Amino acid sequence: MNVLTDIIYPVIDEFNQTLPDGRHLNKAPDTVLFGGGNGLESIQLVSFVVALEDHLLDFTGKDIILADEKAMSRRNSPFRDMQALADYIGELLGENE
Predict the structure, then answer these.
(1) Mind listing the pLDDT tens digit for each residue in 82-92?
(2) Distance CA 72, CA 68 (A)
(3) Domain boundaries, the chain
(4) What is the pTM of this model?
(5) C-alpha distances in angstroms, 1 versus 7, 65, 68, 70?
(6) Are 39 and 33 a contacting pair, CB within 8 Å?
């Protein structure tokens, strides 16, 4: 399983339908997700994370919470870009096996 192509990118496809033109997320590992002025706004990030958690449950059968104390206490946010998020999801999936 490739976390980017199997889990994150399908959610991006759906989520982009809700975003205004010019604000769509690119399907690339270095796409900024949050922060730096180029990413999603806070409420958009919350919506994206909820959609991603739903897709994770459907795809893996595992109920995984992405935005918890563990994620928020990290020195480097797992929400800074798509690769960081994919790495974090991979860690969580590994822990839950």
Answers:
(1) 999 999 999 99
(2) 6
(3) 3-17+29-95
(4) 0.90
(5) 9, 19, 24, 24
(6) yes
